[in-house]
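User: Structure tokens for this complex, please. No commentary.
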Amino acid sequence: MPPFPSELPFCSLLQYSVRGQDELSRRSRDVRTAIKTDGFIGQTRVIEHAARRVAENLQEQGCLAKCLGPDVALVPMPRSGLLRSGALWPALVICEALYRHGAGAEVLPCLHRVVAIRKAATAAQGERPEPQDHCRTTCVEVDGVDRPRAIAIVDDIVTRGSSFIGVTPHLVAAFPDVPIRCFALVRTISQGEIETILFPTTGLIRYRQGQLRREP
Amino acid sequence: MKTLTPPQLLGPLNPIERQYAPERFYVAGDPAILETGARVSIVGSRQASPEGLARARKLARRLAGEGIVVVSGLALGIDTAAHTATIAAGGRTVGVIGTPLDRSYPRENELLQARIATEHLLISQFTPGTKTQRFHFPQRNRTMALISDATVIIEAGETSGSLSQGWEALRLGRLLYITRALADDPALRWPSKMLDHGAQILSDATLPDFLEALPSRLTPVLDAAVPF
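Assistant:
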């Protein structure tokens, strides 16, 4: 198995405040919940609305073009639990919405969770799954799949980026030399309030000496 | 009694939610209750243990104190404990029943059902006059999962109807919690299966995370604007 990358480029569209108490911070958590459940705010399907915002950013040659160019295969991140047939898979819904709005060349649901792991969002600090845990509990199935020109691993929320780092060796093994980036619809802001929910961002997830750091 | 479609009662639904949504709801009471707070189902066995009943009451009181709407099925045992504790705490509750609104089952809860129908909210997916069948109750459980932002199973055996609600909550991508006592019971096989598929354990330690994960309902549900 290839090694874990020491850094991985990432992009995100939105941000939410984990603990902020002002109205915008609390509303950002409603956005998070709606994305995780493919839900609506008012009459608007939030993932679809977000995909439109991504498309606007791409049309304006915004920062998300670094991850979501027209030649990219969109690979949905597996959920932390096992997936029953017909159950909601938010990352797949996001990929399909992005694709409908012109981001990416194809949706490639080739990563699968084979052993359930603890949800990062509800784990105490120090008990969150590490990249090794994600690598051990996922697999890739690519039989009959054409080699993509580039890959964007897509998830609903990015906290530290452990899952992105953890599944990357599987994709590197399956598609050697294909550039891999990652995209999350929402990044967490763990401290304080936020001033806006829409905040397209590019950055890096660093993994060095066993330490994960998302910048910004 | 009012007749409402799922979008009229709950707002628009995604394709997975539409799959088992009933064609219409028959409601008595105040449907606006559904817009006033996050909605949590408390469900479990009819033949519940004293400890299980106490857990249901304690959780219902806490949720009511947080302004969260408590949903349950008006069955004996855990359901009754959840409804009555919520009402006693001054909270709001929704009864989702497996009979038409013009019938009550079990008979013991006739007065409780009538109170919920007038002071809170009572929902059925079955047309008045429909003869009640056994399969109506699992259908009702799916509907309860659809109505609720989260489901908590307090106590349930391997054949409990609450399990159909749990699996439906997981299918919908909603929060599903089971009690520590269930997770640690070596006689039960279903808790580990549900935990593998995304259920979480509710305990005093995880309750803050559970409350934080619920939607805040800062604005009316049906006409809010997306804030980005």
